[in-house]
Every structure is written in C-alpha cells, then in structure tokens.
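Appendix B, record 7
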Amino acid sequence: MAVPKRKMSRSNTRHRRSQWKAQVPGLVKTVENGRVVYSRPHHAKLVEDSNGNPLFLEYKGRKVADA
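Structure tokens (predicted):
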C-alpha cells in the first residue's frame, strides 16, 4: 500500500476532492404503447400489469427475475 512521505495540506486536499463530480446517467428514449419512456441502457426493466402492480424484471425481452 502506498504511504505518503509528507502530510498533504488542507488546501491541497480540498482542491483534489473538488474535482470529483456527479454525472448525469445516460438515458435512452423509447416509445412503448404510444408513451415516451426513458430508461437506462443495459439495465433490467420492471414489467407491470395494467393496474401498475410489478410482475417481473425483463432484460432484452427475457424474464430475468421475479419482482
């Protein structure tokens, strides 16, 4: 494990930390049943029935898990 030779100043520590920024997730726009739906690519989609109750998770048209 790397060990620093000298103590890093408070100013330098804060400058280093200030470079970390949150990124906006990339969303994909699709049209399902006449509605525009935004989803994250390469993530499972929750399939619901007509009442809005969760049924299962789907990925690439296949059922991957129960909800």
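Remarks on this record: DSSP finds one helix and five strands in the chain. The chain has a mean pLDDT of 89.
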